[in-house]
Amino acid sequence: MGSDFSFLAAFMQMLLALVVVLLLIFISAKVSKKYINPLGNKNLKMLERLSLSNKSSICIVKVGEELFLMGVSDNSVNKIEKLPKELEEKYLNKELDMSNLNLANIINKSSNFFRKDKE
């Protein structure tokens, strides 16, 4: 009978210790998140990503108020081009129809914009 009580007491102590440790982990995660990244990602945001293969993709990245078309692979990140101001304003202000707003359409409109400038 005495050994059952000591086992139960030890088990309860272990559970209490586990709860305290989990609570400390939770609190430290919250505190570290607050101090490590106090501003969040207000100035840098990936808006859309399209995989080209297992190891490469293209994406639209918002840096401040500008949009960039970026190429991303395992070994590098390359700026392909800065999106035109008119396309940037429409994308940021959500003036485009959201059902048509995808990476392929933006690349197409962007390339058409640059072709007009070269003609």
Automatic annotation (TrEMBL):
<keyword id="KW-1003">Cell membrane</keyword>
<feature type="transmembrane region" description="Helical">
    <location>
        <begin position="6"/>
        <end position="27"/>
    </location>
</feature>
<dbReference type="GO" id="GO:0044781">
    <property type="term" value="P:bacterial-type flagellum organization"/>
</dbReference>
<keyword id="KW-0969">Cilium</keyword>
<dbReference type="InterPro" id="IPR022781">
    <property type="entry name" value="Flagellar_biosynth_FliO"/>
</dbReference>
<protein>
    <recommendedName>
        <fullName>Flagellar protein</fullName>
    </recommendedName>
</protein>
<keyword id="KW-1133">Transmembrane helix</keyword>
<keyword id="KW-0472">Membrane</keyword>
<keyword id="KW-0975">Bacterial flagellum</keyword>
<dbReference type="GO" id="GO:0005886">
    <property type="term" value="C:plasma membrane"/>
</dbReference>
<keyword id="KW-0282">Flagellum</keyword>
<dbReference type="Pfam" id="PF04347">
    <property type="entry name" value="FliO"/>
</dbReference>
<dbReference type="GO" id="GO:0009425">
    <property type="term" value="C:bacterial-type flagellum basal body"/>
</dbReference>
<keyword id="KW-0812">Transmembrane</keyword>
<keyword id="KW-0966">Cell projection</keyword>
<comment type="similarity">
    <text>Belongs to the FliO/MopB family.</text>
</comment>
<dbReference type="InterPro" id="IPR052205">
    <property type="entry name" value="FliO/MopB"/>
</dbReference>
